[in-house]
Amino acid sequence: MHIDPNKEDTFIEKNFFSQDISPKERTTAFNSLFFHYKKDWQSSFALMLVISVGIASLGLSEDSSATIIGAMIVAPLGQPIVALGGAIALGWRIQSFRMLGIIILGMISSILIAYIISLTLPDITPNKEMLTRTSPDLRDIGIAILAGAAGAWGYYRSEFSTILSGVAIAVALVPPLCTCGIMLEQGHFILAYGSILLFVTNLIGITFASILVFFVLGLKNSKSRKWFYKGTIATIILGTIIILPLSLNYQKFNSGILFYNSIYEKAGKVCELSVNSPVIKELSIQGTGVIITIEPFPDDRDEEQRLITELERSTGLQVFLQSPSSEQ
Questions:
Q1: Which residue spans traverse the membrane (predicted)?
Q2: CB of 172 closer than 8 Å to CB of 72
Q3: Each residue's pLDDT tens digit, 60-82
Q4: 209 φ, ψ to 5°?
């Protein structure tokens, strides 16, 4: 059964502040949230998604923060995530699954498009913009919740719609997915996992905040509370599950994933400025030593030693270089 959120017989309660929600305010909020009732929304959504993924992927490849910020503003994924929270708050099961389907399809499409774009680019050594999106911790879930609350308020009150651009910048959705696609194509699976974890963190944080804000504002349906409780509990459970890896990342802030990313970035810069600009294929930190697999491997022994010296000076670790063939 299809439910039109703008039907007049949809019962909406007074909000937490005991204020009535006028039909005009309700209709405006619903039309903004549930955009899939608009004609030809699929083509607009797909076009903006492809454009934002293209901008973000190219921006990531050249380590351009300004370009990536532009992609964040263009990206359309934030709206269905806020709408998912709105549908759960209203207890609309069909709308909830519809929004979730749009989000999942957008996520898979973004990763695939970024993967294809990466195929057309030369081997990319993970840079700062990529690495910052591969090690989320507890701070990121806090940012997602606060930004999600601001986004929900922005959709509810049209006079504060300018908030939405700030929310898009504060919580990156497309750049982590693009990072995942690029890292998968490059074979850096650990970094790909980290970027997906960041996206899921933002997804859950925004959804939970949206449910809470819409519930307080009165966008809830007392005739359909069962799905509201189920959806809210499911969101909380998923949030609890990701707390563990986020906590581990936070605890390892100085010596774990961020330390690995820092070493990877420093070593990548040294290799980039060296003869033939070798690409890092694998990096393994073991105690105070690091094994770095590069390609092409220096033919000249003096050049190999010079590269090792520069890497040790940059990373502060004992460096061991090897070629891909020596791993087999």
A1: 41-60, 66-92, 99-118, 163-184, 190-215, 227-248
A2: yes
A3: 998 898 999 989 988 888 889 98
A4: -65, -40
Evaluate whether 202 touches 137 at the Cβ level (below 8 Å): no
Residues written for the chain: 328
Distance from C-alpha of 300 to C-alpha of 278, rounded to nearest angstrom: 13
DSSP letter, residue 160: G
pLDDT score recorded for residue 204: 95
CA 311/CA 128 separation, integer angstroms:
17
Query: Residue 304 burial by CB count (10 A; 0-12/13-18/19+): exposed, middle or buried?
Result: middle
pLDDT in tens, 270-309: 998 888 889 998 887 755 667 889 989 988 888 888 998 8
Query: pTM for the whole thing?
Result: 0.73
